[in-house]
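Title: Comparing notes on inverse folding

I've been comparing how different people in this forum approach sequence design from structure. To keep things fair, I'm posting one structure and asking everyone to reply with a full sequence. Here's the target:
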């Protein structure tokens, strides 16, 4: 019976030989092109590999089961190309997708205004430290310092260092950070008032960097970089208001409303300006 069945299968294959041949050719063609999704030369900008091509080890693509086919690199190591024997030809660069895609979208100075909630002052990321930087006019929050939020276009997994420096690259106060989704939240303590600073992050998701310059000058609600009678008038005009998204800069003591304490705070600082 088996011989009869095998004979029938052989005859069927023979009858369909042209179709079988084309199928084999098509499969070979597809395999040849499986790794070649790059646009031009193999540089860091345009090199891509398909999962099927690099994942002959099976399972998820991780260091434990990564395998590359012999056509991908230079087989200077003998036997199979495993992680210990794998070599790539000179000129080849691989890059981490997360680091390459990392972009700082925006940065904010965030403060909690009591029951009114947190409000964020967006920082001008294009201003030079000595130029028209965004001025944070609200006071440092007791026990919590200043909070600067860096918002990226991708989830953040690691940050190596964070620093707050002045124009002479001297560190001001202390800087700590935490990570929340796409945000890196920097807490500054001990930064004096009437200061321009640059907050810098390095080692973001590996090798990414980001920085934002800003200034702290309590009472400068109109961003003129000096505390003047105009700032007093602006706060007085909003006395009695509950803090909201359009007036939070005038709530200097972040109490949740604009009142006599805010007027007193700006009056006591008239004459101060940024260096
Ligand atoms: Ca207030």
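Reply #1:
Here's my take.
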């Amino acid at each position: 019976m088996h011989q009869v069945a095998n004979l029938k299968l052989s005859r069927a294959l023979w009858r369909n030989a042209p179709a079988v041949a084309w199928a084999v050719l098509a499969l070979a063609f597809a395999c040849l092109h499986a790794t070649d999704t790059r646009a031009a030369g193999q540089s860091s900008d345009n090199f891509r590999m398909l999962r099927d091509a690099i994942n002959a080890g099976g399972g998820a693509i991780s260091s434990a089961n990564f395998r590359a086919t012999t056509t991908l690199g230079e087989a200077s190591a003998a036997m199979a190309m495993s992680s210990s024997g794998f070599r790539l030809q000179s000129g080849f660069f691989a890059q981490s997708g997360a680091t390459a895609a990392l972009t700082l979208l925006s940065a904010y100075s965030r403060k909690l205004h009591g029951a009114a909630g947190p409000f964020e002052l967006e920082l001008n990321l294009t201003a030079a430290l000595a130029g028209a930087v965004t001025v944070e006019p609200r006071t440092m929050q007791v026990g919590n310092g200043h909070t600067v939020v860096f918002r990226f276009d991708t989830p953040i997994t690691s940050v190596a260092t964070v620093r707050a420096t002045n124009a002479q690259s001297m560190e001001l106060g202390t800087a700590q950070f935490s990570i929340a989704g796409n945000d890196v939240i920097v807490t500054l303590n001990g930064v004096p008032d009437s200061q321009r600073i640059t907050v810098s992050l390095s080692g973001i998701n590996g090798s990414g960097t980001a920085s934002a310059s800003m200034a702290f000058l309590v009472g400068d609600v109109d961003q003129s970089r000096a505390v003047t009678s105009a700032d007093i008038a602006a706060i007085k005009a909003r006395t009695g208001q509950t803090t909201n998204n359009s007036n939070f800069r005038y709530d200097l003591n972040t109490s949740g409303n604009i009142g006599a304490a805010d007027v007193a705070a700006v009056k006591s600082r008239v004459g101060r300006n940024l260096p």
